[in-house]
Amino acid sequence: MLHLRIISPAGSTPDVLAALRADPGVTHLSLLPGAALAPEGDLIHADVAREAANTVLAELERLGLARSGAITLEPIETVLSAAAERADEAAPGEPTDAVVWEELLARTHEESTLSASFLAFLTIACLLAAVGVATDSSVTIVGAMVVGPEFGPLAAFAVGVVRRDRALVWRSALALLAGFPVAMAITLAATLCWEQFGWITLTGFETAQNVDFIYQVGPFSLVVAVLAGAAGMLALCTAKSAALVGVFISVTTVPAAGFAVVASTIGEWHAALMSIGQLALNLAGIVVAGVVVLYLGPQEGDARWRLSRLLHRGR
């Protein structure tokens, strides 16, 4: 379930309480009149079944609380309550299938912004990838995969496409289109410096065997990207952080960028272009898979939503 905390202007409180009482997925309703100070108003607490959250939030926003008050939503780890069980049974669908759009937007918003921290993580990941290529170390390549923050804007891009949110799509695209060139440019400067010290040589690059999978584009490159994108979006929707880590390790986006930089500095243009192709293929596959997963999820009111509700109540 999710915990809902609302600051409501005194004049709107009766309508808010009526809307909450009318939804069978809402329980544990409490009111503290005049308890809120900034903004001023009444403080309302309630717990809502995950499946009913979109409907409840839409009604609260229709009442103007996002402008005149406040709406806070947070997950509840453990609930021991017969009332909560009844609310969960009454709510349509399955909790694990429900996509709470406001929650998903909040998760992807921060990660989709071109910020100093995003650039720092992406640059560090590209540098690690370059070191992995230079030392023929698959372990370092895996480390670069984990550090890379690129799945955030990719997921946000997919959410923006499904929600027809142009601002989110543009912000996510900007983070990727500006972030990768900046990170690769810094990695290029570092690689040229390492070559001056003799740490990276053409001979060492040609004899590397553990990292050549990065630029070898094949049918399974797209398969892995699509599967990783689908798993990542499902992990975001269900807050499964462990699955997200698996997604980071499975795709070669950042390693491909680092490999392209190293290959270009020593004149291996074919390998560099193949790495760029690998990068583009993975980015596209992840976004497409994320969009498909969101579209295939049960939407409120459609046949899949009603079937899920019937199966849930049948059990």
Automatic annotation (TrEMBL):
Pfam families linked to this entry: DUF389
Keyword Transmembrane helix: yes
Transmembrane segments: 114-135, 141-162, 174-194, 214-236, 243-266, 272-296
Lineage: superkingdom: Bacteria
Matching InterPro entries: DUF389
Entry keyword set: Membrane, Transmembrane, Transmembrane helix
Name of the protein: DUF389 domain-containing protein
Species, as recorded: Nocardia jiangsuensis
